[in-house]
Amino acid sequence: MLEPLVMIPGLMADARIFAPQLDALSPLMPVMVALPIGGRTVEEISATLLPKLPDRCAILGQGLGGDVALDLFRRAPKRISRLVLIGADPLAETPQGAATRELRRVGVKAGRLLDVMAEDYPDAALAPGDGRPAIRGLIRSMAENLGEAVYLAQSEALARRPDQQKTLRKVPVPALILAGANDSLVPMRRLEFMAEMMPFAELQVIAGAGHFPSIETPQAINAALRGFLPGPMLLR
């Protein structure tokens, strides 16, 4: 039986952020989405998710979901066969970044969730072109679906996220790091650093994509996953 793929979205994203991958991969292998909820730190979220995961699986994490994926590997390395990270930052938040996140949480508590989401995901972080308004609309819809309490917990988890350099060095499984060429939120040098730290990692930069390549350039992401995950490779 093929090992499942578990996909973990980022800040204020739900399963819709992976809709193209669910459509493309579900006929080839078991696929599930696990939301990064159930705690106010990356460690608390991963502790909540771990009992719900299959005994052994591949994990794809985007943004905050990537941080959670790495912590899941730290906790249970024998249960994870492969890692895919999209727009994930392996380093701890800077003091300036943490202060900015605190200001945004204040804004959310004041009822400005959608305004704050536009600050978290500015146009400069999204893919250019005619598809940007649709991406912006999905961001708003997912935020309204998840609500203020989830934002406050996830933003705090990002502000307090651990430095994962020690974990990166100990990942002896294949890893695929996917980066949108137009993603302004995660510096490319950090993604290159992450790829260098992991013994069996490959970095792919996706042209024409921003912070959400899973929906901005779905065909490119689907092709990368089909070439990397063992299930689709076996069944092609």
Q: Fraction of residues in helices?
A: 40-55%
CATH architecture: 3-Layer(aba) Sandwich
Q: What is the H/E string? A: EHEHEHEHHHHHEHEHHH
Enumerate how many helices there are, as a single number: 12
Query: Low-confidence runs (pLDDT<50, min 5 residues)?
Result: none
Secondary-structure content class = alpha/beta
Q: Give the CA-based shape.
A: globular
Biggest sheet record: 6 strands, parallel
By oligomeric state, this entry counts as single chain
Widest beta sheet: strand line-up: 2-1-3-4-5-6
Count of individual beta strands: 6
Keywords:
about 50% helix; about 15% strand; about 240 residues; alpha/beta; Rossmann fold; 6-stranded parallel sheet; 12 helices; 6 strands
What is this structure's SSE topology?
Layout: E1 5-8, H1 19-25, E2 31-33, H2 42-49, E3 57-62, H3 64-75, E4 80-86, H4 95-109, H5 113-120, H6 132-146, H7 148-159, H8 165-169, E5 175-180, H9 188-197, E6 201-206, H10 213-216, H11 218-228, H12 230-235
Parallel strand pairs: 1-2, 1-3, 3-4, 4-5, 5-6
Helix pairs in contact: 1-11, 2-3, 4-5, 4-7, 5-6
What does this molecule look like?
By secondary structure, the protein is α/β, with parallel strands linked by helices. It has helices at residues 19-25, 42-49, 64-75, 95-109, 113-120, 132-146, 148-159, 165-169, 188-197, 213-216, 218-228, 230-235, and strands at residues 5-8, 31-33, 57-62, 80-86, 175-180, 201-206. Strand 5 (175-180), helix 9 and strand 6 form a beta-alpha-beta unit.
Give a short synopsis of this structure.
48% of the residues lie in helices and 14% in strands. The chain is α/β, with parallel strands linked by helices. Helix 1 crosses helix 11 (218-228) and helix 5 packs across helix 6 (132-146).
